[in-house]
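Q: My labmate handed me this sequence with no annotations at all. I'd like to see what the chain might look like in three dimensions before we decide whether it's worth expressing. Could you predict it?
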Amino acid sequence: MSPPRFSSLRRAIGYLPPPIRRAAAGLWLDLASLPRRLRDPSRRGDPWQSLHNIGPGDFQSSGAGMLGDLIVLGGLKPTDRVLDIGCGVGRIALPLADHLEAGGGYIGFDISRRAVMGCRKRFARLRPDFEFVWLDVRNGDYNAAGAIAETQARFPCDDASIDLAFAASVFSHVRIETVSRYLAEAARVLKPGGRFMFTAYALTPARREAIQRHETRLTLIEWRDGSMVMDPRSPERAIAHDAQALMKAIETAGLRLAAPWVAGDWAPGAQTGGWQDIWVVERP
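A: Here is what I predict for the chain of 284 residues:
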């Protein structure tokens, strides 16, 4: 397929309703993965993107990369009890299965029932101590019929029970009021001194200028509350939040930065090879 036709197809897919759009994009990624699955028997168990689309990138290597970030930036220890916010199909749970000792613990939750059911089946024998929970939280792009408003979501953990929480590619798909709620919930479940690592698209004045000059790898337009989105018809498809708004939400939740945030390569001035920016906050 020629590049112009490929671009036209991608644009056409973008106009589909969110569930159909993500399934169509996932099918395209599944087709691209077939040679790798056929060459390497260990890859044949990788989840199919048409069932739950987690976006481009190699399933195993991206999970391993995030584990490295959790260790280096988040201070993850094998004995930690961790919370995986938006666990999806287990991309990060898979390398954690080898890294975490049985004395620690893992709990992951997602708003996709299909993803959670898949994780329960996949990890039943590999790590039967891993717990996967479905939260029927409403999200315009991922669970439009959910019964629970995002701003009313409650993490499935007791107070002060988690050493390290993380949310990979979650805040890039929720509105700023949901970010605030999730930060407050993270503060509730973290032990004193516990850390929360999350990824996001953070907007600064320089980055806003770069977006206007089309120098970023993500096309965004102004939306509301200082945030920018890829598609106003489906804002949860991709959302960037103002860095100052993120800082305010962090402070309001009673958390603080553990270190300066690390710029991803979606915009000029990258400090890491990862796509999104990485933030690490802690409970005093």
